[in-house]
Design a protein that fits this description.
Number of helices: 0
Order of helices and strands: EEEEEEEEEEE
Length: about 130
């Protein structure tokens, strides 16, 4: 089991940066691939970025590639999502999620493959 708590959201202007954090409980954090998803008002939740348990592999949605960076620090049981050049269309509740992994290179973009989810943090990009 792992419990996830996101933080770092807020209200920013277009072009600004934010770094979201996902703090995990439990001693097996390094056994999980992690993902970030987001849900905008009136829209389905969508995949944003994923990282393998070791951090060796990452993958991004096309809409955020180049602007966002996913990372993790297994010693601190924490994952991050650095978001640069934010746009109004990035406004959403951002969730981190964990997927059990037996491989250091595994990651997934599929919601149903993530067993554990945080409560979400709101990101609003507006002038």
């Amino acid at each position: 089991q792992v419990q996830l708590v996101e933080s770092g959201g807020g209200l920013v202007q277009p072009g600004a940066s934010l770094r979201l954090s996902c703090a995990a409980s439990g001693r097996t954090f390094s056994s999980y691939a992690l993902g970030w998803f987001r849900q905008a008002p009136g829209k389905e939740r969508e995949f944003v970025a994923a990282i393998s348990s070791t951090g060796w592999r990452t993958y991004y949605a096309l809409s955020v590639k180049v602007r966002f960076t996913i990372s993790r620090d297994n010693a601190k049981n924490t994952a991050y999502l650095l978001m640069n050049s934010l746009k109004p269309e990035d406004t959403a509740v951002y969730y981190c999620a964990a997927s059990p992994s037996s491989s250091g290179t595994y990651y997934t973009t599929e919601e149903n493959e993530y067993n554990f989810w945080g409560q979400g943090t709101q990101v609003t990009v507006s002038s």
